[in-house]
Amino acid sequence: MVNAVSPDAETIDVVLMRHGEARALAGKDAARPLTQWGCAAVQAAAHKLAKKSPSAQGVRSSPYLRARQTAEIVSEVLNLPLLPESAELVPSGDSDQLVAWLLAEAQPVIWVFHMPLIGRLIHDLTGCDVFPKTASVFGLKLFPGAPSRHQHQLEWQL
């Protein structure tokens, strides 16, 4: 996607990640833990992410157990602080609210959350349609002064 913002404009690098594979629904959705395979896939993704040397200042997640466990693994592998969880990152979260939050965030953060929200958010920011598998990671460059939401860039995907 072509960006209409000057290349010299201030940017924010953010990393968006979908949680790892979770156990099948049994009881409350928010209480579903990662599977053993899910933990291993998140750890592998975190090691690949570490090679990209993200400038993140911390890891923030949804309060759902699977997202929190994913954030804990990423935090440990990348030696980053675990930030307070955010109810805005649940599967039914408001994409418009998150767009505003991401653009206002003063420091780059790794955000761990769910489908369908992560797919909607990436589309709203970049105009790109993505269908994130569990433990997938996306690097975006945000331009806080961009005239529209679809002016941001999807730079890479793991």
Report on the architecture of this protein.
It is a single chain. With 158 residues, the protein is of the alpha/beta class. It has one domain (12-21, 30-157): Rossmann fold. Helices cover 32% and strands 16% of the residues. A 5-stranded mixed beta sheet has the order 2-3-1-4-5, sandwiched between helices. The radius of gyration is 15 Å and the shape is globular.
The helix/strand order is: EHEHHEHEE
CATH top level class name? Alpha Beta
Largest sheet: 5 strands, mixed
CATH architecture descriptor text = 3-Layer(aba) Sandwich
Level of helix content?
25-40%
**Oligomeric state:** single chain
Question: CATH H-level name... which superfamily?
Answer: Phosphoglycerate mutase-like
Taking pLDDT < 50 over at least 5 consecutive residues as the criterion, the unreliable ranges are: 1-6
How many helical elements? 4
User: What is the structural class?
Assistant: alpha/beta
* Content of β-strand: 15-25%
> Rounded to an integer, what's the Rg over CA atoms?
15 Å
Tally of domains: 1
The overall average pLDDT, rounded, is 89
Shape: globular
> How far do the termini sit from each other?
19 Å
Write down how many β-strands occur, each being a DSSP E stretch of 2 or more residues: 5
